[in-house]
Design a protein that fits this description.
By secondary structure, this protein is mainly α. The chain has one domain. The protein contains 7 helices and no strands. The longest helix is centred in the middle third of the chain and has 18 residues. The radius of gyration is 16 Å and the shape is globular. The chain starts with a helix and ends with a helix.
Length: about 120
């Protein structure tokens, strides 16, 4: 799991708003099925509670929020005090404009997002 998720989530704050995230999610879901021994008819929403980790979209959202908080708070960050430029294409969403910074720790944020999306465990 660690090998697949680390490769699947590498630099995810950058590409998480791409149209191709479904391809990465599919590969991660297949890996979860192999690890848990679940068959194809098992709903994807049931895989991640069996493993005990948050789904990929939640993990990407938390990673993006943490990166945004680093950008705002750390003066050593390359994008500290970066002002966004006008967008040339309406289909593109800037990381600076579309992600709010993290207010709490990563684990509590993952739990909060998971509860919002799937309800209490």
């Amino acid at each position: 799991m660690a090998l697949c998720f680390s490769a699947g989530e590498y630099a995810c704050p950058v590409w998480s708003r791409s149209a191709h995230t479904n391809l990465v999610d599919t590969a991660l879901n297949e890996t979860c099925r192999i690890v848990t021994g679940c068959l194809k008819p098992t709903p994807v929403r049931m895989l991640y509670p069996l493993i005990g980790i948050a789904p990929p979209e939640i993990r990407r959202a938390v990673a993006s929020r943490i990166e945004r908080a680093k950008q705002q708070n750390d003066p050593r960050h390359p994008m500290h005090n970066h002002s966004s430029v006008p967008l040339r294409l309406k289909s593109r969403k800037s990381f600076v404009a579309s992600v709010s910074p993290s207010q709490t720790g990563p684990s509590s944020e993952r739990c909060d997002l998971w509860r919002e999306k799937f309800g209490p465990p």
